Amino acid sequence: MADLVGQQLGNYRLIRLLGRGGFAEVFLGEHIYLKTLVAIRVLQPQLFKEQADEVHSEIQTLANLRHPNILAILDFDLEGRPPFIVETYAPNGTLRQRHPKGTQLPLDTIIPYVRQVASALDYAHAQEIIHRDVKPENMLIGPNNEILLSDFGIAVTATGISSPTITGPVAGSAAYMAPEQIRGKPRPASDQYSLGIVVYEWLSGKPPFQGSFMDMAYQHISTPPPFLREKVPGIPPAVEQVVMIALAKDPVQRFDSVETFANALREAHLASSAVLPATLPIKEAILSGSFGRKTLGAKALTIGRVEGNGLVIRDREVSRRQAEIRPAGQGYSIIDLDSMNGTYVNEQRIPSQTPYLLKTGDTIRMGKSKMTYEGSEMPGSTREGPATPIVSSKEVAPGSASPPAVGTGMLSTKVDEALEGDQEFISRAFEASAPAAPATPDLPASASSVPWVGEPTRNERLPATPDLPASASSAAENLRAAPRPPVGEEIELSLFAIASVKLEEGDIALVGKTYTAQAGVSREKPEDFWAAPFNMVVKSVKEPITFDILLHESENIELITNWHRRLLYRPDDVEPQLATFRFQVVTPGKSLLVIDFYHERRWLRTMRFEFDAVEQSQHVPVSSEV
Does pTM surpass 0.70? Predict the structure, then answer.
C-alpha cells in the first residue's frame, strides 16, 4: 500500500502511521472541519475486493455496537479508493504496550481490566457478535484509562446465539484460541476462553501453551494448562480454580457468561485476600488405598501419575493431573481435571471440572487404581440431636420470634455439587413463619453481596460493586455456569436459591439470644431474601424435587436445630419453600453463617452471611423517635 500520510480520505486527513497488520494499516487522522483526532483503518484493497459483500455487511453490524468499553466505529467508506473505517482514537496505546510480554501483574491490576473487557464481550454477544481475537494487543487504553476492546475485524455474526455454534474458517491468534474455535466452530464461550488465557498470561508472565501454530492448536484441544501455582507460588487456590474453569476444554463447562467469569475472579480474589477471625472448622478425613493412608486437611490434594501432585498414582491409565480433592464446607469434594479416562465415584463417572461431594465409604477409581474415602460423616450423623420430621410449611418453630430488621449480607455463591442426609424439614411461605419484615435495608460496611448477571441494579436492591469480607471457604466454584439442558422433552426450570438471616437493627446479633435463618427455593425472588439464580432440567413439574440445605457456622455460633435440612420442592408451587434454622451466638465478635444448596449431590449455590455479635449489655437499641 502506498504511503498515505498527508492524504485526505473523505473528511479526514491522515497525519501519521500508527500500526500495520495483515488486513489493514492504521493511521492517526484528523477531521478536516471538526479538528478531532480519530484512528483510520485503511483496508488492503485486494483483500477487501475478494470479500466485499461479507465485509460490508459485517462492518454495518459492528458500526451499531455502542458500549463504553468497545472502540466505536464512527464512519466508514467501503466504496472509496482505498476503502477505510474511522474509529475512536485511543491515545494511550494497548495493554500489550503497557504490559509487555513476560510481565506479571497483580490481581488488583488484572481484575479492573477483566471486568471492562467482560462487559464489552457480553454486550457484543447479546448483539450476536463473537469477537474471536481477544488478546492484549486488541485492548486499547482510552483517554481516561478506560479499556476499549478493538479489532472486531475477524468477528462473526451468530444468528440465534442462545444455542451458538457457527462453522467457518479458523481465525484468531493461536496462543489465545479456544478448542472449538480451532475446529472452526466458535461460540460466545470461545471469547471467555481467550480472556482466560489472557488472565493466565498476566498472572504467570506467559500463556499456558507455546510453540508453533500446530503445537499450540494440539495443546488447546488436548492438554490441560499447567498449574498456575507452579508458576506463581502463593496464588490463592480459589483464583486458580476460577481461571481453570474459564479454560475448560468443553465450552459447556465454562462460566455461563464472560461477566460471570469476571465476577467470580473478583470474588475469589477478595475472599482470599481478607482475613476473618471466625472461620469454619474443617474435619479431617482419610483417603486409603494401595498407597497407604493419606490424611486430608485444609488444603486441596491433587492426584496424578507424575511427581508434583500431592498424591502420585503409578497407573498408566491415570492422567498426569487426574483429579483434586478439596475442602467443601465441613466435608470434601472431588473434581476430575479433564482426565483422559475419567474419575469414578462408586463406579459412576463424575462430570469433568465439576466438584462432587464425597461421603464416608465412597469408592474412588482412577484407571485401575481404587481408593476409599473415610472421614466427615453425612449431615445429620456428625452432630447429635433428634431427627427433625417433615412438618407443614405453616408451622412456626417455637422461640423463633422475628427481630425488627432483616440482615441479609449475601457474600458469595457457588455452583457445584451436593449431598444426602437423614434429617428432613419443609417450611413454606416465609410470611407465615415470621412477621412481615421491612424492605431489605442498605447493607452495613461489614456485610456485602455479590451481584448476579440479571440481578437488580444498585438503585433497585443489590450493590453493584461492594467490598467483600473474607470467606471461610474457597470461592473457586462461585458463579459457575449451570449445565446446558439436554435436547428432548425434558423441562428446564429457572429457580432461585434464597436465604435470609433475621438479626437486630443494624445487622448485629446479641450474645445468648436466639435468631432464625431461612433458606430454600423459589420461582421468584422474594423481596426480603437474597436470591441466587440457577437452572435445572426435570422430566415433570408435577414431581417433587429434593434439595439438601446445609448450614455451617463459625466457632462462636451454636446451632439449636440440626445443621442439615432436606426440602421437597414442588415446581408447580408458586410459594417459596423454605427450611428454617435457629441459632445462638455464644461469644461476641465477627460471626459467619455459610448456607450450601445441593441437589442430588450437586452443589448449586453457596451464600455467606457475616455480621457482628455483641454482649446484650453493650447493645443500644436504635430509637424510632425523631
Answer: no
